[in-house]
Inverse folding.
């Protein structure tokens, strides 16, 4: 039987816990759950909990955890997508879909041709995006939460290439290797990062800087894709290859 899923930020210390705030509101006023109703909680660290509502007090409720399980629905490869922020609601769309697909980490980056600049308000933006990620995990039954890091300038981000088994940069340069051909050279990978540039792409200087740091330029097709489309397409291709 399907049960509604709700997020708790920490593993429960006891079998009885009180819920309040956003999730309690969702349970009581959106789902209109009653005493005795069973719900599923997840902690973002791979565990989910079968719980029963035992008390309701205004906008808070107490649940009794009846069973806990470690349920791994994560991909065998750790994917990080670093992206130049698209305009308007497209950033929300990118984050939501990457979270549904199972991207481990998202890093907004600022490039020479970036149109959207959130460096002076990144904290508020990321707080909003974190809520999108939680809702996406609830919907798609992930028990882990995609991490969203603070915005980084591209030159700082490329210095982290050594933290990954394979570092990629999506570009439309002539004679660029396809993603498929590059992955065939690296069949056993655990951590991958891919950089996705702004509308108009990375500059020649940025691409050369990334290549010197160890990033491999890749193409994912004949079309020039929007930022959010490229993020979803690359993630899907990586999952198809490794899952």
């Amino acid at each position: 039987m399907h049960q509604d899923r709700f997020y708790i930020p920490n593993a429960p210390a006891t079998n009885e816990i009180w819920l309040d705030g956003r999730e309690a509101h969702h349970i009581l006023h959106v789902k209109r759950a009653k005493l005795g109703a069973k719900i599923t909680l997840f902690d973002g660290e791979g565990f989910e909990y079968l719980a029963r509502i035992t008390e309701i007090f205004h906008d808070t409720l107490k649940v009794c955890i009846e069973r806990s399980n470690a349920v791994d629905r994560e991909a065998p490869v750790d994917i990080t997508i670093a992206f130049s922020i698209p305009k308007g609601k497209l950033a929300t769309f990118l984050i939501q879909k990457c979270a549904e697909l199972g991207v481990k980490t998202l890093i907004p980056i600022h490039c020479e041709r970036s149109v959207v600049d959130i460096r002076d308000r990144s904290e508020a933006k990321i707080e909003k995006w974190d809520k999108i990620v939680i809702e996406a995990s609830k919907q798609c039954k992930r028990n882990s939460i995609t991490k969203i890091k603070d915005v980084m300038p591209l030159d700082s981000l490329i210095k982290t290439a050594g933290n990954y088994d394979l570092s990629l940069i999506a570009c439309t340069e002539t004679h660029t290797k396809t993603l498929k051909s590059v992955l065939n050279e690296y069949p056993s990978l655990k951590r991958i990062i891919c950089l996705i540039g702004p509308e108009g792409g990375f500059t020649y200087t940025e691409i050369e800087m990334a290549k010197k740091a160890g990033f491999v330029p890749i193409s994912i097709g004949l079309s020039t894709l929007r930022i959010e489309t490229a993020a979803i397409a690359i993630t899907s291709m990586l999952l198809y290859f490794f899952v």
Q: What stands out?
A: Helices lie at 21-30, 90-101, 122-140, 154-157, 179-185, 204-213, 227-242. The mean pLDDT is 92. The chain is about 30% helix and 30% strand. The chain has two domains: 5-70, 78-242.
